[in-house]
Amino acid sequence: MTTQRARILEPTNLTPAVEALRNSAVVAIPTETVYGLAGNAFDATAVTKIFAAKERPSFDPLIVHVAPELDTVEKLSAAGIVDISRMNREMIDISNSLINTFWPGPLTLILPKGPKVMDLVTSGLDQVGVRMPAHPIAQDLLRAAQMPLAAPSANRFGRISPTKAEHVLEELGDRIPYIIDGGPCDVGVESTVLAIDSGIQSNTSVSVSVSVSVSVSVSVTITDTNEKPRLILLRPGKITASDIEHATSISVERASSTHEKASPGMLASHYAPRKNLYIIEDWSRLNASESAPWLNKKIGLLVTSGDGQIAQQALAAIQSKPSSTVCLSAHGLDSEAAQKLFAGMRELDNSEADVILATAAPNASGLWPAIADRLKRASTR
Ligand code: TXA
Ligand code: MG
After folding, report:
1. 7-194+228-254 is classed CATH 3.90.870.10
2. Which of 5, 71, 90, 317 is 20 to 30 A removed from 200 (C-alpha atoms)?
3. Could you report the per-residue pLDDT of 327-370, keeping only the tens digit for each?
4. DSSP at 237
5. pTM of this prediction?
6. What residues line ligand 1, using a CB cutoff of 6 Å?
């Protein structure tokens, strides 16, 4: 039996990828965050293929990637991607200022969906996630193909996001025609997802009684133009809540469980290795009891920051020693750790280790909350 392997394309030769996209096929592309599995966002056949290749459930919405030319909500609305008529002045201004500050870049904005975006893309939601990638190859492709690209991370559903072309080959090599090789991704974790909510648009039913005793029910939308929109962080990433607060002077709300339902992709178990992964918060109290799931197992050690000495010593104290160790950043740099996170998880997952133990993210600044979020989603609870 032969398995068809995807062709790896050099970025200098985008023509086959453009042709494929025009013919409703899907192509893996590099972005600055992770590799994406891209298809024409306006083409139902292409979008269906994305869900099928990933084995992704249809309730998990896709992000629409746009070319650098679409750099205001007015232009996004003219392209049918966003619906500006459902945004008040404040919401338009705040969205444009976020676009101006952070695009192209790893920030996905959740905005009212325009008429050209199919329910298939947004999983039936009235909002669409939009982002303008900073990666030059993604931009070249968006310009050459002349279509917005729906693109989730190019992994099978629930698995670790790919940050190198070879990871995509491992995940989807038998399912897609092309992988554009743009080298390792710069950021390493997926974009920040931010919902922008007017918070003040309310559909109010008004009953109008006419003298001939005919009752008419009218639904009006009351828009208070002076209110500031609400900003809700649905997924942490490189653009942090405080970056957004600096740019907008609006405090960013963290996603509650209700919001997590509104963003169905934020499933607790995500980005998971095949092996069980445990985050050890306090190595000085490492559980060495009979029931500890790592006892007498081959341990893969994932050190988020530093050289992992404390973890090694704690393991030695229980007569154990990791069979493989990955240190994400010896000097504790968040950007370096994020860049290496998914490749590190993948390496340990493919190693002889039976179980993975990870050290917790050292603090809550910069990219560490995003790293902590991905580790938590990968962990066994
Ligand atoms: O960095 C990234 O964002 C990468 C690259 C390829 O651009 N893409 C990515 O896509 O991570 P994906 O599908 O793996 O994650 C997108 C998540 C969804 O799971 C969902 O939580 C949220 O973004 N999302 C997308 N559209 C949404 C919408 N209309 N409303 C709420 N959340 C949405
Ligand atoms: Mg994903």
Report:
1. yes
2. 71
3. 999 999 999 999 999 999 999 999 999 999 999 999 999 999 99
4. -
5. 0.91
6. 31, 33-34, 36, 60-63, 106, 108, 110, 122, 125, 127-129, 131, 151-153, 190-191, 193, 234, 262-263, 265-266
